[in-house]
Specification:
Mean pLDDT: 96
CATH class: Alpha Beta
Oligomer: single chain
Number of strands: 10
Radius of gyration: 18 Å
CATH superfamily: 2-enoyl-CoA Hydratase, Chain A, domain 1
Order of helices and strands: EEHEEHHEEHEEHHHEHEHHHHH
Strand order of the largest sheet: 1-2-3-5-7-10
Low-confidence stretches: none
Number of domains: 1
Distance between the termini: 49 Å
Number of helices: 13
Helix content: 40-55%
CATH topology: 2-enoyl-CoA Hydratase, Chain A, domain 1
Length: 267
């Protein structure tokens, strides 16, 4: 399997059967533009088809795990129907392709964890966060519904009450708090994060692959049952990209101020 077509993701093989996928660059916080968003949707099909890979590790280089979509892509999504339709399809595929990937996936999250990277981080089979990780679903802060993965997995991981609190208020979840409420599998000190992820991947790669894959397939039926809730949330997110609140959300982010959304909602 060749991964040469990927421009925003970097690949290495720290152990036999283990593929490490890294987002971003050293010294920077990875943000997903048009290419990055597409690649996070496509990579899980290629991992699934790769005979040399039994386990994939997803991590971020530089200052954090993932910084979410860049503002240019967000603005393009508000302005262009074709872009919006493509982003909807890719956002759908990020979730379903990862759920349906038969290979084991381990995530290693540090620093900010936002956007499409966070989708993959929380849908990983084993999610590991640094204690100082800052997990946040930024959709309501932007002025759109939390649609790109939250409805399918947050209530199952941490319960409806916590899911609503963090998703509605757009509050940050630390790695320690994420472990406490069950949002991630475990948290570790940041200097042990990558080693822990690699050790976990090696353990998984040495186990019965049929047993692991069939167990994963069975457990992920809980997520498949939540598919209609996810589909509705993603459609409503895309609807939000056509409205006025997202314009104020984008402006507030560019100007580094609090958003001033409309005080009422006609629907």
């Amino acid at each position: 399997m060749s991964y040469e077509k990927y421009q925003t993701l970097k690949f290495s093989r720290p152990s036999p059967g283990v593929l490490e996928i890294a987002m971003g660059e050293e010294g920077k916080l990875a943000t997903a533009g048009h290419d990055g968003h597409r690649e996070l949707a496509e990579i899980w099909r290629d991992v699934d088809a790769d005979p040399q890979t039994r386990v994939a590790i997803l991590r971020g280089l530089g200052k954090g795990f993932s910084g979410g979509g860049d503002l240019q892509m967000v603005e393009d999504t508000t302005r262009d129907f074709d872009v919006r339709a493509r982003v909807w399809r890719e956002a759908r595929d990020v979730v379903y392709n990862l759920i349906n990937c038969s290979k084991m996936v381990v995530s290693a999250m540090h620093g900010p964890a936002v956007g499409a990277g966070l989708v993959c981080g929380l849908l990983a089979d084993v999610s590991i966060a640094a204690r100082t990780a800052r997990i946040i679903d930024g959709h309501t802060r932007l002025g759109v519904a939390a649609g790109d993965h939250a409805a399918i997995v947050w209530p199952l991981l941490c319960g409806m009450a916590k899911a609503k609190y963090y998703l509605l208020l757009c509050e940050t979840v630390s790695g320690e708090e994420a472990e406490r409420i069950g949002l991630v599998s475990m948290c570790v000190d940041e200097d042990k994060l990558v080693d822990t992820a690699r050790e976990t991947a090696v353990k998984l790669s040495g186990m019965s692959q049929s047993a692991l894959r069939w167990t994963k397939y069975s457990l992920n039926n809980w997520l498949r049952m939540a598919g209609p809730a996810f589909d509705a949330s993603l459609a409503l997110e895309m609807l939000g990209f056509t409205g006025p609140d997202v314009q104020e959300g984008i402006a507030s982010l560019r100007e580094k101020r609090k958003p001033n959304f409309r005080p009422d909602c006609p629907f």
